[in-house]
Amino acid sequence: MKNHCLIYREFGLPQEVVQLEEQPLTLRQGEVLVKMLMAPINPSDLIPIHGAYAHRISLPQIAGYEGVGEVIQVTDPQDEQMIGQYVLPLRVAGTWQTYHIVSKKDLIIVPSSIDRLTAAQMYINPVTAWLICTKELDLNKGDHVLLNAGNSSISRIFIQLSKILSFKVIVIVRHEKYKEELTELGADLVVVWDEETTLTQILAHTNAKGVRAAVDQVGGESGEILARAVQPYGKFIAIGLLSGQQVDWSFLHTLPIQAKVYHLRHWADSVSNEEWQKVFQQLFRLVEEGQLNLLTTAPVYPISDYRQALEEAEKKKKKIFLNFDSVSDR
């Protein structure tokens, strides 16, 4: 059985430094062998490859942090009922490979009602948005949450959660064409980015009070505008860096707000197994009830075309999926 991995041995442009290689498989007691089916390419997958976290990443490294697969082998006889089940093999980096070895306690079993494309993207964006809304932000009914990159996958999740959890969302977008669609989805206000007027529009909409919280995916000047719109004692949470530029943290710390960077891995590393499972069950239920809808169409590339997939993900900053069914394991 051959395991094909997308691995990087140096930091740089993903389409240049990621290589398709064969790696051996060694299954130890308590572990499960998962045949990967599909995995998304997220910004959070690409940022480490660029070297942003070089201080804590040991090379070589298999890329990818989420995806869906099928259990094909177990080490404990009592786990044989898991064979054939679709699962999310998480908490261990390296989902961009044809086979993934994971501890059975970290597996999330996917309900049969959840399709493969949806399952592949159930971790990073939904869990991040859910935890920020329910654990990080002290939101009251009607509070406003402000987001930039308003057309991103996670912004769309925040908008849907606003209806479930009874808060309001203001999103900033770069193009007028997104206004109608995001308003229909449930955004309270959609602002087309303008360096001179964006902040004024947000303050006018909130009767000069500002927003209860802001979630920054962009960094740089866009993030600083978000921070200036946060009311005193409100919260600013950075979850992305699409611009490639940090916000001016020294400026943010002069504001009467709480500002921090949110890392999903900190939660994943410390949470109890009971809570780990509970969060996914809550999100699965929202999907099954039709209250939460994730991306349903997106470009899908076979793993053999990974360079083209990575180049498109880099250039267009949109979600791309890798399909692992196309690689022979013999």
Task: Write up what this structure looks like.
This protein is of the alpha/beta class and 330 residues long. It is built from twelve helices and 16 strands. The strands form three sheets. Strands 3, 5, 6, 7, 8, 15 and 16 form a seven-stranded mixed sheet that branches. Helix 9 links the parallel strand 13 and strand 14. The protein is globular, with a radius of gyration of 20 Å. It starts with a strand and ends in a 7-residue tail after the last strand. The relative contact order is 0.15. The mean pLDDT is 94.
Tell me the radius of gyration.
20 Å
What is the string of helix and strand elements? EHEEHEEEEEHHEHEHEHEHEHEHHEHE
**Spatial gap, N to C terminus:** 6 Å
Mean pLDDT value: 94
General form: globular
Largest sheet: 7 strands, mixed
Which percent range describes the beta-strand content? 25-35%
Number of DSSP strand runs: 16
Helical run tally: 12
Stretches where pLDDT falls below 50 for ≥5 residues?
Answer: none
Estimate percent helicity. 25-40%
Secondary structure blueprint with pairings:
Elements: E1 3-8, H1 14-17, E2 18-23, E3 31-41, H2 43-50, E4 61-62, E5 68-74, E6 86-89, E7 99-103, E8 107-109, H3 116-120, H4 124-136, E9 144-147, H5 153-165, E10 168-173, H6 179-185, E11 189-192, H7 198-205, E12 211-216, H8 220-229, E13 230-238, H9 249-252, E14 258-261, H10 264-270, H11 273-288, E15 300-302, H12 306-316, E16 320-323
Parallel strand pairs: 9-10, 9-12, 10-11, 12-13, 13-14, 15-16
Antiparallel strand pairs: 1-2, 1-4, 3-5, 3-7, 3-16, 5-6, 6-8
Helix pairs in contact: 4-5, 7-8
Enzyme class: oxidoreductase
Family: Belongs to the zinc-containing alcohol dehydrogenase family. Quinone oxidoreductase subfamily.
Catalytic activity: a 2,3-saturated acyl-[ACP] + NADP(+) = a (2E)-enoyl-[ACP] + NADPH + H(+)
